[in-house]
Amino acid sequence: VDAVAGPAIMFDPRRQYANEGDYITFTINAEEVTGLAGIEFMLGYDPDQISIIDISSGNIFSQSDDLIFIPQLNSEDNSLTVSTAAWGQDSPSFSGTESIAILEILVLESGDIDILFQGEVAYRDSDNTDIIISEIIPGKILSY
Question: How many Cβ atoms are within 10 Å of 39's Cβ, its own excluded?
Fold first, then answer.
């Protein structure tokens, strides 16, 4: 069953169960995109509940000659901004479903924990034209 209509951006898995002190991994995926060449998104989270330990590039632009991947943690507003793009000859782009970024998270507190996309998520094609996103699906941790 394909429950997500693309183009979309989503956490995989959407929900995880963990205990306080556990390390978990989420993948952020681009779902059913066509001609995607650039992405920017911001995640908001409660630093009392989780700590982002590591963020690495997914496979979405792995075929590009030059990959741009810029993660920026901002402790002032408890956010993570990720900018990534394919760069190179012949205007590289991606079509399909693939991972954008991989997050390693330390669970600091028990309870329901949300990791939300904040502001506008930008998908761009190789002409720097907006690609309309149909669905934005955040991540959730249930910690006990």
Answer: 27
